[in-house]
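Dear colleagues,

As part of the handover before I leave the project, I'm documenting each prediction I ran so the next person doesn't have to rerun anything. This entry is a single chain, and its sequence is reproduced below.
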Amino acid sequence: MLESSSLRTVVGMSALFVWIYLSNRFEIHPVYAMGVQIAGSIGIYVWSKMGKSSVISVDASADVADAPSLSDLEFVQGSSGALTSASTIVLIFWATWCQNSRTAMYGIETAYKKLKSRGVLFVGITAEAESTVEAFLRRKSAGITFPCAVDASGTIARACGIMSTPEARIVYKGKVLWSGEASGTSIEKAVRAVLFENSEDRSKQDGKRKRA
C-alpha cells in the first residue's frame, strides 16, 4: 500500500514516460514535445501535493454503502467497546512507516480532541504487526491518544477501497458517508457536516423553511 501522494506521483510519471516514448516514436516537433513535458512535470508535482476527498452523502437516509464489520479489529490502544455505542466513527487508515501518515496524525489528534465530546469515535487502522504499532504509540513524540487497531488480514481496508495511506472514511450509523485523504482539517469539516445534516438542528431548520 502506497502513500497517497506517492501513488499519484507514480501514475503521473508513468503517463509522462509514455508521452516521451510516443513523442520520440512518432517524431513530434521537439519544441512542442518539450513544452508538454514541462507542463506535465509541473502538473505531476501539483497533483502529488493535492489531497482528495469525496462527500458521498452527509445524509444518513441516502442510498449509500454499508460500512464493513469492525468486529475483527485487534485494538492495541483503546478497546472495541465503544464501537457498539458510537453512531459516528472516523476510520483512519495509516501506517507507522508512512511519513505522510505520521505527519497527518498531529492534525487528526487535534480534530479528535475537538470532536470526542460530541460522541465521535476515531479509530486508527493499520495492517502492521501489533508489536510494531504498540512500540510506535509508546513514543512520546507520536502524540496519538485515540484508539488504534490492527486489521491484520486487510479485510476492512479492502472493503473500504483503501489503496494508499493516509486515507479516512466517516461512518454514520453503519453507512459510509465520506471518504478522503486523512487530514485533521478535512475530517473535522466533514464530521461537522455529517453531524449537522443528521441532527435535530437541521430538522428544525427544514421545518422553518417549510413554514416560510
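The two ends are 52 Å apart (CA to CA). The first helix runs from residue 4 to 25.

All the best with the project,
I.
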